[in-house]
Here is the input.
Amino acid sequence: MENKKLVEVKNLRTYFFVEATDKQITEHTENFDEKLNALYAGDKYLKGKVPAKAVDGVSFDIFEGEVLGIVGESGSGKSVTAYSITRLIPDPPGKIVGGEVIFKGKDLLKLSFDEMKDYRGKEIAMIFQEPMTSLNPVMKIGDQIIEVLLKHEKISKEEAFKKAVNMLEQVGIPAAEKRMKDYPHQFSGGMRQRVMIAMALSCHPALLIADEPTTALDVTIQAQIIELMLRLKKERKEAAILLITHNLGVVAETCDRVIVMYGGKIQEVADADSIFENPLHPYTEGLMSSLPDPDKPKQLLQAIPGIIPHILELPKGCKFATRCTKVFDKCWETEPDLIEKGKSHFVRCHLHG
Amino acid sequence: MSDKSKEEKVSTTLFQKRWKKFKSLKRGYYSFIIVVIFYIFSFLLPFFVGRDALIVKYEGEYYFPVFKFYLAETFRQKEVQGEANYRMLKEQFKQQDNDNWVLMPVYPYGPNENLLDELTEIPPTHPNNVHFFGTDDRGRDVLARLLYGFNIGISFSLIVTILSYTIGVSIGSMLGFFGGKVDIFGQRLIEIWSTLPFLYVMIILSSILNPNFLLLTFVLTLFGWMGMTYYVRGEFYREKARDYVSAAVSMGAGNSKIIFKHILPNALTPVITFLPFAIVANIFSLVALDYLGFGLPPPTPSWGQLMSQGMQNIEKWWLIGTPLIAMFLTLLSITFIGEAIREAFDPKVYSRLR
Amino acid sequence: MILQVVPGGPLEMEIMRIRMGGAMGEGPSSTSSSSGISIPESAMEEIKKFYGFDKPIYERYIVWVGNLFKLNLGKSYVYAEPVWDVITSRFPVSIYFGMISFLLTYLVCIPLGVYKAVKNGSTFDIISSAIVFIGYSIPGFALGAFLLVMFGGGSFLDWFPLGGFRSNDYDTLSSVDKIKDQIHHTVLPVISYVISGFATLTILTKNSVIENLSQDYIRTAFSKGISEKRVIFYHALRNSLIPIATGLGHFLGILVAGSFLIETVFNIDGIGLLGYKSIVQRDYPVVMGLLVINTLLLLVGNIISDIIYAIVDPRIRFK
Here is the structure.
């Protein structure tokens, strides 16, 4: 299981610059580092805005051949982390302000946006949450798949067409050759997500990033879609999948390792088994107890109290302090470090300090 | 009660936010200030530009011709018939060098005043330091006509815009709120109505009836309200489907309450953002009609009428140049205001991947 | 979609006709009063009979509608020719200016709009926005009048002719001179035609492209490794052109119908000037004919729009 590192994310920081009240501006701009100061000096657009730290110092590795899950509520920074890897952050308001993403020995954050195109689609492919809007509405499905193939592989149009048909067949689209000429609106949501998968897998990427691929779909289709994604690994053993989801069921079924995120920070990292059996962080515990347990059918589900605070109002200490059931004084003052607790099991909590 | 005050508080802060944003857009904000100041000033024009003296002191008594009409005989001005000529009076008093005096406006020429007697050339005369923008073909001062024309143009288009918006919003709300047959039928009627070529009908009407301010307002309104219905109707359809409306309905709010308290305030964004552009369009229409000679009746000072004089006297450049520049500056300012209002009310985040 | 527009046809004409019926009734009397010559009562009756004003409005109206279906719009009072001929003879001139302005507007505004979207917020974007808004604030006909004064030999420069479609001696010119003469007569009117349309189309294009650039499918395209150029000019532009293409037919209809004001300013003998003259001279058959044709053009424009919409957007299909 212990494999070569495919991606190394180091201290990644992605901020969204948002309009704020005067009070928030003074609060959030006083301890700027040099980099942020330079950024503010160089960009008029940032005036009157404060950085919302969507991803704030996230480090993790993706190993070859593994399925890594990132879980967390909406607003925890999990999707932004994933998009930062391929540098698809909408700007404005977002900017990657620091860190490294080392892929096969190269820091992707140091490449120009244009150089990234050799990695996207070929080395790192993506599947998105919204199959309804993620396909170009005025382009035929076939053309959209062929486009990727022609871009990354030295093949003729005819070969690309054949390969695209083959891909569609593989993801289970009936009458694939005929449907190549159809437009996205002629497909159902689940079918479109299959097309997305066909497109993402067509160049056999080393890493597949799937951002909540099943959230917008019917429950009955979700399992099939996950199944299709995992097909990548059958063809290319060293390929890795980064699966972003809030669905713990999906995580339990598919992931080798799990990262739990909250408030733009990693709270806990562990193998999937140990996280389900032995969650250390109170937040992870809360997530687990919100899952129905088939062994205790009559038990009431536990919800995590409160809601995620506004990103500009996160506490100074532990980000989870406002909702934690086991909060104590220290939690409000200092933020705990991410420390190793057991074999490759990391947690960020004063209870385990 | 507390709910109400809370709601008002929210709406004021939203408005304040937009106002703050609007103020930060310098081009639009300064244009707004300038246009408002000029427009207010244009109502006080008789005190600055006009043929009537502000104050006359004659044989120990004070007269205020700006407010009141005095016959020439009042001041024993024998060579003048009808109303007194105060510029002449001023000269007379100066020569007499007694206690009598006249205080004239800064620019002592009126917009409708025929200066044939004073001019040494045949009008239209060139700009000079007496008549800054020259005179038109009837010997009237161009600057005075331009300034008064500004007031009339803006007032006219404001009235037309407000009237047509009122109608457009009411009908649009009705169509959007009631939907169904009312909507389908109403929309067809509006479609038919809007295929009428406006300028044609307008000109035909003006050539039959004698155009005046009221008639023009009426007709322009009649042809100007349709555009807004589409937007308001669309907004109503969208807002109607929102949860807060269902919530209001489920709490037993009546139709009128839902329309006026809940939906309308939310549907007003397009109305406000289009307002300046509608004003521009209405100024356009008035100038065009005046130019063609189907607009406000003479001798109303108007930009379009000056231009048409300019076309007839093509070598007299000031007749066309000055109204064009006046109109251009006015319309540009209003366009800038519109651009800023749109930006403040309907901000679009232009985000890109890069 | 088309079906929704079509019922408008006959009905709206009806409204106009009722209107015009009233107009006709008053027509001759106001001519006589405005010309200031008193016409004997008997002569008046004769004139009325000649023009058909002696019959009641509804009767005239029914006759008129009947003729309309035979493409017979009556005879012009002024030109003493069939209205149909009077109008069609003016069409080429209006179409000539309309098409040139139309092409120029689309050829300039779409690339400009796209470039502004790509360079959003840059100095170029800000300056070009200011320029198109300045253009927007100048009514075309007023600019035309001003240009004539400045460059048409009025007060200053004598670079361009004082209007007209062609020189009077056009037929005697050599073919090179013919082209020169034509261009010479085209420049100023076309500037006046396009000036205010520029802003609308450029900003529309820009906003449309920018809106599309923030859509999900653009992110998908980037995630596939497509180059930025292709993403903008292929993926985003194709979607952005949908609202622009939709307005095309309508715009075309308006342009072909000629512009009242600009044709009047430049004394171009097209549909617009004809309309103006007919109203001034109270040539009602021509006015009526123009109203019908204007309405038809608008209708055709709408239909063209619908067809283009269906072509550019695969989600729309005729049923």
